[in-house]
Design goal:
Helices cover 60% and strands 8% of the residues. It has helices spanning 7-32, 37-48, 56-63, 67-79, 101-123, 128-145; strands at residues 53-55, 83-87, 95-99. A hairpin with a 7-residue loop joins β2 and β3 (95-99). α1 crosses α5 (101-123) and α3 (56-63) packs across α4. The N and C termini lie far apart (40 Å).
Amino acid sequence: MELLDDSRLTTMRLLTEAYTSLNSLCAEHFAAHGLAAIEFEVLLRLARAPGRQLRMTDLSRHTAMSTSGVTRMVDRLEREGLVARVPCDTDRRSSFAVLTARGLGRLADTVPGHLEILDEWLIGPLTQRQLQGLVAGLRVVRDAVRPDEAPAIEVRAPRRPSAAPVRH
């Protein structure tokens, strides 16, 4: 059936397969550091945000989690001392999730191995030109599917590691 040979289906399948495989490798690494993948994403977004804090509603939007899901996640991270919740001075209905020193420490322990995985399986197989094209293309797609949302953190084009990636 010709319809099933459509290159759009192939493109989406390749994107899904690459994401799922990379996500699985990363999830194993995060679990070894006591984090779920979404918890790592929340901590990283907070670490890269101005003042290492985001409004709960912004955190929800940037992680594609429901507001109640973010509330439960922040509650969990707060119990572990990785995040603190701070009320907003200008809006009593709103609060900020703030990365704590302990949360930053957990990231500092987790990020190096995460970068090794990215170097080996995402960055390493691509030429610099392919990598730049991938980043540019992903930015275009992200902006198209999320037109009303300016990115909280602009994604920088990755640099090649100075040393060869470690093979697992």
